[in-house]
Amino acid sequence: MTDPTIGRLRVSGATLHYEVRGRGPLLLLIPGGTGGAASFDGIADELAATYTVAAYDPRGLSRSPLDDPGAEQRVAEHAEDAFRLLELLSPGEPARVFGSSSGAIAALHLLTAHPERVERVVAHEPPVVEVLPDTSEHRALIARVQETFRTQGLMPAMAVFAAGLKKDDDTAEPAPAPELPPEAAARAEQTLAGLPFFISRIVPAFMSYVPDLDRLASLSDRLVLACGQDSRGELPYRPAALMAERFGTELRHFPGGHVGLNTHSVGFGEALKKALLA
């Protein structure tokens, strides 16, 4: 794997760690969950053959500390961080952007707020549950997760959260976790360290976000909505499927499920390259 060029960018209330590889037009990668720039290690080199690939740790996670560790998180602020990176790394030139999960929510807001800076956005399973007809159930889930975290702690809260993401009719015992490539398994410690911030700050802020569907529809020629081929029926799959149907656009399917980036990195990278050119 090629060693990236490392940078630090001061933004409002935080300092962002970012990494750059390759040459060509800019491709900004926005991670989801507790992932940082390292979550793209499995695909970054392949993409860097075509693009200048930039990835970063979102504010509050890993190597991007907040000035105020207790600061509330907002989707608009995270999207503005991405915009600042575009301004730094691709001044005056529209860029391509990929985001997964919560990172895909930030990418959607970036597209609506700064469309002139974005040539194409690929959004993989953005859990914008406010667009769903049963959104009240998901608001209740988020409230249960927060209450469980407050009263019982991290792992019980994560269990409630994970159960709420499953298929509505899925009552089976959970399948064994897929075996991760060594580089993904090595990030487990970082993932665990970021979970309290994720469950208490990112989940409530991002899953209560209401996207501007009319504006996204008007920009849908620059938007590729994607889901994991193994995710059908799960909560993170449904908003992208609904938006693709509403916008009259194709819903792309990438290998694996919600975390296919980690479990099926080679196929995921190939699918992403095709989506960026669509």
TrEMBL record:
Keywords: Hydrolase. It comes from the Bacteria. Residues 25-131 form the AB hydrolase-1 domain. SUPFAM superfamilies: alpha/beta-Hydrolases. One of its GO terms (molecular function) is hydrolase activity. Its EC number is 3.-.-.-. Pfam families: Abhydrolase_1. PANTHER family: AB HYDROLASE-1 DOMAIN-CONTAINING PROTEIN (PTHR43433:SF5), HYDROLASE, ALPHA/BETA FOLD FAMILY PROTEIN (PTHR43433). This is Hydrolase. The lineage of its organism: Bacteria, Bacillati, Actinomycetota, Actinomycetes, Kitasatosporales.
